[in-house]
Amino acid sequence: MGTSQSTSVAAPRLLRENTGLCSSSEPLNQRCGLSGVTLGRRPLEPPFDPSVPRLRDPFWALWKLRPLKKARGSSSSLATLRRRLLLRRRRSSKCPDHARYMRELLSGCSLAEVSALCEQYEALAALKDLSVQADLARPPASAKKHDLAALFETRVAADVELVYAGACFPAHRAILAARCPYFRQVLGRFPGHGARIGLELRTPGVDAALFGALLKLLYTGELAPHQHDRPLLGRLADEFGGAPNPLEQDLRYLLETGDFADAMLVFTKGNGSSSSSSSSGHSEYGFSSLGTLERPCHKAVLAARSPFFKNLVQRRNRGEELQPERAGLNLATRIVLDESVIPQRFSSVLLHAVYLDEVNLALVCRPLEGGPTSLEDAMELYQIGRFLELDILSQGCEDLILEMLTPNNLATVLAWGARPYGSAWVYRQAVNYLRDEFQPFSQSPVLLQLSAEHLREALSSDFLQASEHEVLQAVLKWGEHQLVRRMEDREPNLLSHTAHSVARKGVKKRDLSDVELREILSPLLPLVRMDHVLPANAETLAHAVRRGLLPTPPSHMLGGDRDAVRIHAWIRSTSGCAQGVWIRPRLFMPYYEEAKAVSLIFSQLATSNF
């Protein structure tokens, strides 16, 4: 028992002394039987006497397997130059060694403290998975077969009544005629609106319930499982002229041909007048001389897919019922849409979404030169979908916007998503994109395009993928850019376009006002977790403290045991005598991976018998 305790206490000290806690050396690990253990790049230089064998010490084995140093005179000048160039490249690299900084931080920790940090990271990783799933959640858009099933059940906009076996079934001419040859012939003999048609089938054994299930099959393309009487269904298929086509095929036929159309979508320009069309509702398909576009469609499909169109169709039907002179006439109901609300160039995209559940931006009528981009079209179509309460269109546009999301348009998408008419779902995905790619964004012009609100949204997250040092550098860079823009705005108009303007000659950092910069950064700097800046002696942090930009310096700069304060800022202490204030670390993956690797080394050293 005593041996185990002494081993666990000595493990961190032995790791610090023998490895220097540097980056990995996989071949040596494998040769020593420590696969998966991360060790150092620097030569292992233990303070003990190399002549004394310590066979059971794995780090002693690493020391024996180290590459031997050559004599100084044996290296050529070319090799020396190559080493100097490599060293210069490493020093000038802008990518910090996050793993090394984390190992240096944990070099003074015990196994229990490292394990506690890993547990914190694991809890954050589980929380991140839940957060991502919550951000992706949205109510599913209803598919066409579900909307048509609801249309059949609610009997909205029904224009014919079928009577069979003493039961009455309100239905829709266009759907029945397009789906079944038998009903196409029957309805052709009774063309009036609201006709009541009695039916008799030659096939025996078909009751009212089965007849209703067959009608629902024509609306949805699916038959209830308990209705699968194959011999009876085969005889009915023969009488009805064959099994129905796939639902999408028949809906595409209605869309492309306009057969059995009982409504006309009129896309107008200007004040919404459509005087070029005849009062009967039958007009030539396409653009008229006054710029009016007419698209034949079907009231049943429109009412099924969109509550906006359903209310409109119901009002029009009630109005037509009050006009006896229109009874028995198959006149198309005209639905006029103003160009300022729904532009003509979106007509094909709109109808394809209604009939086929497709959102295809290739159907947008674009000018030969200039005009909106595909991203702008998707944003406008999203608003049209919200106006028409057509969820399949609005959600399809959301998916297209995410597919087109790039660093170049990230600021545009964030600004649009944050507006009242934008998509909150797209905004959440764009913020997650900014959060996950913040490290490369902080070193690119994308950072300077972001607003303070968007930066606050990203910096408030526990899952921001950047070290606190990089976050601090990004915030200072953004603030200095905002200050320069403010100086340009204050510049007199006489100098704005001359060689003496701020935009032309530039501004040096020493000319920037620290007081004004602190005011600009006041909403953002409190979100930077200063106690987690690694390395703790980073020049960026020290310079910000000297300039008076930070409201409160990091706790390790306020005196006391600095190492203990730094550790307890990362690791929650269970004892009440801990120094410093614990701050939840972000789930920065390089830190997380290195903490797991160090914990593995500590565990193996603690369980080894030296």
Automatic annotation (TrEMBL):
InterPro entries the UniProt entry points to: BACK, BTB/POZ_dom, Btbd7, BTBD7_BACK, SKP1/BTB/POZ_sf
Gene3D superfamilies listed in its UniProt record: 1.25.40.420, Potassium Channel Kv1.1, Chain A (3.30.710.10)
Example GO BP: morphogenesis of a branching epithelium
SMART domains associated with the record: BACK, BTB
Domain BTB: 158-227, 298-363
PANTHER family for the chain: BTB POZ DOMAIN CONTAINING 7 (PTHR16064), BTB_POZ DOMAIN-CONTAINING PROTEIN 7 (PTHR16064:SF3)
Name of this protein: BTB domain-containing protein
Organism in which the protein naturally occurs: Cloeon dipterum
Lineage: Eukaryota, Metazoa, Ecdysozoa, Arthropoda, Hexapoda
